[in-house]
Amino acid sequence: MVDYSKTYRAREPTSISVSVMKHVVVIALLLVAFVAVAFMVTPSHASMAVIKGTVYWYDQYGNLRPLAWAQVIASGNDGEPTRVSSTTDGTYMMWVTPGTYDLTASLDPGYTPVTQMVVVTPGAVATVDFQLQQSGEPIPEYPSIVQPIMLGVATLAAALILRRRRAASLWPR
Question: What is the pTM (predicted TM-score) of this model?
Fold first, then answer.
């Protein structure tokens, strides 16, 4: 029989393992303290209000459609305005402090801004929809000086692609 007590002896703690254990304990205590503080300092949304709605526009056929990426700005008496963008389905939502706000929806260039006033109370949800009209202002694509350069780059890229295809078709596979 083999005597394993002589082969595998329990090691006594060294200064390195004691130091590591001290660090682990300190990190664990800091983590517990951080989590405890995070649960004590929770924001109170009961004193806030929500303004939400949808931004629409009329297409060329007179149909009402949701407008994506429109800017909605809530300007109140408290100073800094709250800014949000509508999503791809035209909806927006913002948390604000209770009070009176001037809401402005816009999408520049191309649409005329619309402003509406709304009063929100604590814990309330106010729904404000906008219908923007096209302004007739053209949406700029490139400055006129850039257009010939872009045409030249596109022509060069097409020529290189065609040359590669022609060269690839000459080589046997």
Answer: 0.56
